[in-house]
Amino acid sequence: MKKLLAIVVALGAPCFVSSGFAIDRDAGMIDVIGADVGGYRDVGYFGGSLWVENRLAAKSEDWALVAGIGGGEYDIKNGSDPYCWFAGIGIKRYLAGFSSLTVMGSYRNFENESNFDIVAGTATFKLRFVPSRHSISPYVAASGSLQYCDFQAGYFTETDETFNALVLTAGVGIDFMASEDFAFVFEAGLSDSQDFNDGVQYADGFYGGIYMRHYWQ
User: For residue 15, how far is the Cα from the chain centroid?
Assistant: First the structure.
């Protein structure tokens, strides 16, 4: 937990020095679609997601609105295997040094009932080692997510659980440009959760994804 927190703080430090930068590849809109996987404590996940990033009409051209939807299935050891869907919306600011900061709110619902819900506020910092205009652009990303969890008995515990949690992630990724406006993206990282109110540390493990990213001018 302490090591992962140190990584998040270290990656986020450059956020305090910012200047105007246009969004990746000077695009007006960026679409990302792909597959998400995770392996957590007694839990596996496989699903898909669609995200849209739309540049705002700001003078600096370094602000964007971010929204996404997705869904998948959880494989819970000795429990149910619920399907879920989620939606999120937030704001993104491009900073100095090919970096960006995204602040987002999201909601995740399981099996179309209010029996297993997660409401979260998440801040994500991303730093590219090579600008996105290059054919290969590796990056690192870190996030902190404060979550309200409402878990029904039979998923992770024998009784109903309602609690707050802090989930930290740190990962690496790389963009491979297939054409001037299309890229394949690979990302993987570690996740660590800290529960409050005698909750469940349900998000300890790893995550990954394979995506297709399209830049619209």
Answer: 18
Q: Where are the beta strands (DSSP E) in the chain?
A: 29-40, 43-55, 63-76, 83-95, 99-110, 113-128, 136-151, 161-179, 182-195, 205-216
141-173 tens-digit pLDDT: 999 999 998 877 666 666 778 889 999 999 999
Q: How far apart, in Å, are the Cα atoms of 146 and each of 18, 24, 79, 149, 154?
A: 25, 27, 25, 10, 24
Q: Which two tokens stand for residue 102?
A: 């995204």
Q: What is the pTM of this model?
A: 0.85
Q: Distance (Å, rounded) from C-alpha 68 to C-alpha 33?
A: 10
Longest dimension (CA), the chain: 54
Task: Please provide the size of the chain in residues.
Answer: 217
Quick: pLDDT tens for 80-111. Answer: 778 889 999 999 999 876 899 999 999 998 87
